[in-house]
Specification:
By secondary structure, the protein is α/β, with parallel strands linked by helices. Helices cover 35% and strands 8% of the residues. It contains 7 helices and 4 strands, in the order H-E-H-E-H-E-H-E-H-H-H. The protein has a 4-stranded parallel β-sheet, with helices on both faces. The relative contact order is 0.18.
């Protein structure tokens, strides 16, 4: 179910145990070959596939395209919320749904810079509603779900980068008309020399062209496999956590 397409009496008639999925993405530079709206376009496709496969078992809020992208502001076209303002935005959106009586909220993320504020938002919400025992508040990122089976496709990367083999491959499925000269892009290492420490960085610290990973290795076949993997991984994720309407929330 898409919240944007419902009338308020239809929302009022819903069980408050129906999980509400809040998609959060970004509008930021994606190198020389992918459009600024890449994260939102890709998450939108994941949501479309999930909504198609799970029917009326989940309620999807409108995709929030403005993200926490200050580390990309060195590249023109990037739009970003101040980190603390972005956290307040997530908290406000969730609080509205809690006031309407919904008890199961999941931030479904499609941008690396949103991972920390998403986790902080559900932590703070739980503390603010600590006396309410029937809440389930989660934040997760779509590419963390599913087991990728290469089956001869020859992936160059084993994890998500930025404007990389994975994102470029998926964009070749979702909006191939917006993909530029990806085969001309050099590979940029995904290794973080300061790991496992968290490093304060801007994209310019790691990549002058704005991508991290190996976009030249992208293919539409890899993109379809990735989209299938993530979508099929998210379905069991919701089931495993007891998110089907009518089931009790998991602790």
């Amino acid at each position: 179910m898409l919240l944007a397409e419902l009338k308020w009496p239809e929302v009022d008639a819903l069980s408050r145990d129906v999980p509400v999925i809040l998609p959060i993405a970004a509008h930021e530079q994606h190198g020389h070959h992918l459009p600024l709206h890449t994260d939102s376009l890709l998450l939108g496709e994941v949501v479309r596939r999930l909504e198609s496969s799970m029917g009326d078992r989940l309620l999807f809020a409108p995709l929030q395209w403005l993200g926490n992208s200050h580390h990309h502001l060195g590249f023109p076209g990037t739009l970003s919320s101040e980190p603390r303002a972005y956290l307040d935005l997530l908290l406000s959106e969730a609080e509205c749904l809690l006031q309407h009586g919904f008890r199961r909220l999941v931030f479904l993320n499609g941008h690396g810079g949103n991972q920390v504020p998403g986790a902080q938002a559900v932590f703070e919400l739980r503390q603010q509603h600590r006396r309410q025992k029937d809440l389930l508040l989660l934040s997760t990122t779509y590419w963390e779900h599913g087991s990728l089976k290469e089956e001869g496709l020859g992936f160059s990367q084993s994890r998500m980068g930025h404007a990389c083999e994975w994102e470029t491959s998926m964009m070749l499925v979702v909006r191939p008309d917006l993909v530029g000269a990806y085969r001309e892009q050099e590979s940029v290492s995904q290794q973080e020399p300061t790991a496992p420490a968290a490093r304060g960085w801007t994209m310019g610290d790691r990549s002058e062209r704005g991508h991290i990973g190996d976009p030249a290795a992208a293919t539409p076949e890899k993109g379809e496999r990735l989209l299938e993997t993530f979508t099929q991984g998210l379905g069991p994720f919701f089931e495993r956590l007891g998110l089907a309407a009518g089931d009790p929330p998991s602790p």
